[in-house]
Amino acid sequence: MAEKSLETYLSEQENEYQKKLAKLEKRKKRFKKKIMIFGIIFSVLIVGMFAINLIPKTSTYNELINANETDSEAIYKIASSLENVTYPDLFDKYENGYLGNKSMNALNYGLIAENQYGYTSLNENGETRLHSNGKESIIATEPISQINLAKDIVIFRGADKKLYSCKHDGTDKKVIVDEKVGTVVLSGDVIYYVNYSKANNLYRYTLKDKKAEPIIEADVNKFIVVADSILYTDYSNKLMLQTIGSNTPSWTNANVVTFYYNGDVYVQNNNKIIKFNINNHFPNEVATDINELLGVDENNVYYTVKNKLYSQDLISKEKKELSYNFDYYKGVYSANGKITALGGVKE
Description:
Elements: H1 6-58, H2 60-64, H3 72-79, H4 88-98, H5 103-107, E1 114-115, E2 118-122, E3 128-132, E4 135-140, E5 145-149, E6 153-157, E7 163-167, E8 174-177, E9 181-187, E10 190-195, E11 201-206, E12 211-216, E13 220-226, E14 229-234, E15 239-243, E16 251-253, E17 258-261, E18 265-269, E19 272-276, E20 284-287, E21 292-296, E22 300-305, E23 308-313, E24 319-321, E25 328-335, E26 338-344
Antiparallel strand pairs: 1-2, 2-3, 3-4, 5-6, 6-7, 7-8, 9-10, 10-11, 11-12, 13-14, 14-15, 15-16, 17-18, 18-19, 19-20, 21-22, 22-23, 23-24, 25-26
Helix pairs in contact: 3-4
């Protein structure tokens, strides 16, 4: 067989190269096509997510945003939907018109309460006063906590940690739950409370039927009611969201020192404040190098750095030092349009 000429050899090599190049181009086209399809799917999902978020704002949201807090039907619609209370302005109506106290107050031991029926305050003698319908009444002279206001009664935890009720003028005081209780939240005509006498399980007590029953069997520390769900921590610093009637949480977060809710969830993890939505998605760092997270309302987050108390605007992130100088803080409270911090001095 005659040897190939150099020209023939180079021509064959060129043909092989062109074949390989053609294969590479086909692979590139297939890859680009897959990337383009993936991009389209991803874009559709993002648009879909925004569309889902926009739907309530153009229908249910717009229907309820101007509702008066005394409109029981509208407030019940807000209270019946976990989606509705993820809007801070609707959640504010829900707290004022449906619950017995604001979540920030309740999570800070409920030493002060406020809703549409009035607000409470502590005087210089340590007495709890109710301000309602232009009147001031002494509710208790002894230390009380976990205060909730209903239309015609006040519900609170006594110094003996039993659950009591009294009328708005402080009369007709009586025991509702003759067991030691922890955090207490009134929602509609139902009282939710941590039962210290029953392994810290979460109970509910219906004012109408006067019956108590366990709804979450867990070592519950603090909790709030969010529509048909309970957002709570246990004593191992886990935060959980659990639908009432369900046996298991829908999600769990570890290493949560404390938490607050205003339509979004704010948690303290070590020395940081992290915000995420009610579905435990889209985490965002709010502040760092803090000592203690003390509250979140519709406008600000409150925390300490050493023994100095600060408020930080949720939108502008502007930080202001508040004029309190306690060695320790019992909590930050919102009542009568004012922010009040309670604390003490170490002896």
